[in-house]
C-alpha cells in the first residue's frame, strides 16, 4: 500500500495589525484547499516568540491544525518548557524544532543545536509531539562537508525527530540524491521537500544567498529578462515550480511543505495545478 502524501503551508508571524488581519483571510483561503497542517515560523533569538504563539493559538482555536516553529535562541530551559507546555495544553501536537540563527547584534552566544532541542522536548513531553526538523539537500551553509551535514541530520532523528522538511531548492536531483544518501546513512524517516514559489527575483536571490539555496543559472537568466514585469515573473514562477513538484511527486517525494510568504497566490494555483486536493 502506498503511503498517503502530506502537504502543508508555512507562514511567518506578521509584525503589524494590517499584516495580522490579512493573514486571517490568507489562512481561511488556503485552509479550504485541505492541507494536512500549517506551520508558523519563530523569529531568530526568540524575537517573535509572542507573535508566533498568538497566531498559532488563534489558528488552533479556529480548528486549523497548526505547528509552531521553535528554537532555544538565548532563552533558558524554563521559559522554553513553559511555552511547550502551553502548546501541549492548547491541543497542539506538532512542533518544528530548530537551532535557528542569532540575529545580528545579539552577541556570539552558543546556539543550541536542533538535536538538543528535540532531545529536550522528548525528555519533557514524551511522545506527545510529532517533531519536524530541518534538512538541507544543498547543505547547510555552516556545514563543513556533505556527509557531516547528513550525520547531524541523523542525530536529530536519533534524538527523536519524526520527519524533516527541507530548505527550498529548484533542482530536483539535489533533493533525490540527498534522500538517497540519507537512506544509505540509515535515515528511514520521511524528508518532505520545502517548496518556495517564485514571486520576486531580487528578494529570492538575496534570501537564497543567505540560506545557501541555489537558483539555477537558467532560472536567474530568465527572471532577469523579465525586469519589473510582475505578470511574466508570476507566470514563469508557477510554470517552473509546478514542473519541479510534478517531477518530485513522480520520483516518489512523500509530499510538500510550501513556504507561502503569507500569500494566497501563487501557492493556490500551484496546488490546483497539481490537483493536491484530490489526493
Ligand atoms: P541544526 O540542525 O542544529 O544545524 C545547524 C548547523 O550546525 C548545520 O551546519 C549542522 O551541520 C551543524 N550541526 C548540527 N548539529 C551539530 C552538532 N551537534 N555539533 C556541531 N555542529 C552541528 N529559522 C528561523 O529563524 N525561524 C524559523 O522558524 C525557521 N524555520 C525553518 C524551517 C525549515 C523547514 C528550514 C529548512 C529552516 C528554517 N529556519 C528557520 C532556518 C534555520 O533556523 C537555519 O537554517 C539555521 O541556521 C539552522 O537551523 P537547524 O535547525 O537546521 O540547525
Q: Compute the CA-based radius of gyration.
A: 18 Å
Q: Mean of residue pLDDT?
A: 95
Computed structural class? alpha/beta
CATH T-level fold name: TIM Barrel
Shape: globular
Order of strands, main sheet, comes to: 1-2-3-4-5-6-7-8
Kindly, what is the distance between the CA atoms of the first and last residues, rounded to a whole number of angstroms? 15 Å
Order of helices and strands: EHEHEHEHEHEHEHHHEH
- Poorly predicted runs of 5 or more residues: none
Sketch the major β-sheet: 8 strands, parallel, barrel
Give the total of beta strands: 8
Please tell me about this protein's structure.
By secondary structure, the chain is α/β, with parallel strands linked by helices. It has one domain (6-278): Alpha-Beta Barrel (TIM Barrel). It is 46% helix and 15% strand. The protein is built from ten helices and eight strands. Strands 1-2-3-4-5-6-7-8 form an eight-stranded parallel beta barrel, surrounded by four helices. Helix 6 (172-184) links the parallel strand 6 and strand 7. The chain is globular, with a radius of gyration of 18 Å. Bound molecules: flavin-adenine dinucleotide.
Concise synopsis of the structure shown:
This protein is of the alpha/beta class and 279 residues long.
Amino acid at each position: 500500500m502506498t503511503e498517503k502524501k502530506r502537504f502543508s503551508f508555512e507562514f511567518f508571524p506578521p509584525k503589524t495589525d494590517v499584516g495580522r488581519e490579512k493573514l486571517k483571510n490568507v489562512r481561511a483561503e488556503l485552509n479550504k484547499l485541505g492541507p494536512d497542517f500549517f506551520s508558523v515560523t519563530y523569529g531568530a533569538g526568540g524575537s517573535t516568540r509572542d507573535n508566533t504563539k498568538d497566531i498559532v493559538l488563534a489558528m488552533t482555536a479556529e480548528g486549523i491544525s497548526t505547528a509552531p516553529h521553535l528554537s532555544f535562541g538565548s532563552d533558558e530551559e524554563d521559559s522554553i518548557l513553559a511555552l511547550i507546555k502551553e502548546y501541549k495544553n492548547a491541543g497542539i501536537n506538532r512542533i518544528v524544532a530548530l537551532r535557528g540563527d542569532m540575529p545580528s547584534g545579539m552577541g556570539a552566544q552558543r546556539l543550541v543545536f536542533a538535536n538538543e532541542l528535540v532531545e529536550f522536548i522528548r525528555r519533557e513531553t514524551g511522545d506527545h509531539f510529532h517533531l519536524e526538523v530541518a534538512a538541507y539537500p544543498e547543505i547547510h551553509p555552516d556545514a563543513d562537508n556533505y556527509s557531516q551535514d547528513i550525520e547531524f541530520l541523523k542525530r536529530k532523528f536519533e534524538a527523536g525527530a519524526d520527519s524533516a522538511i527541507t530548505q527550498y531548492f529548484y533542482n530536483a536531483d539535489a533533493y533525490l540524491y540527498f534522500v538517497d544518501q540519507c537512506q544509505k546513512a540509515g535515515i528511514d524517516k520521511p524528508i518532505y521537500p520545502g517548496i518556495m514559489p517564485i514571486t520576486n527575483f531580487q528578494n529570492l536571490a538575496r534570501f537564497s544567498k543567505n540560506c545557501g539555496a541555489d537558483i539555477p543559472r537558467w532560472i536567474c537568466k530568465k527572471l532577469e529578462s523579465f525586469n519589473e514585469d510582475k505578470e511574466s515573473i508570476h507566470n514563469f514562477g508557477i510554470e517552473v515550480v509546478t514542473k519541479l513538484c510534478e517531477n518530485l511527486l513522480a520520483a516518489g517525494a512523500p509530499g510538500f511543505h510550501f513556504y507561502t510568504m503569507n500569500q494566497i497566490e501563487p501557492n493556490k494555483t500551484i496546488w490546483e495545478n497539481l490537483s493536491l486536493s484530490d489526493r
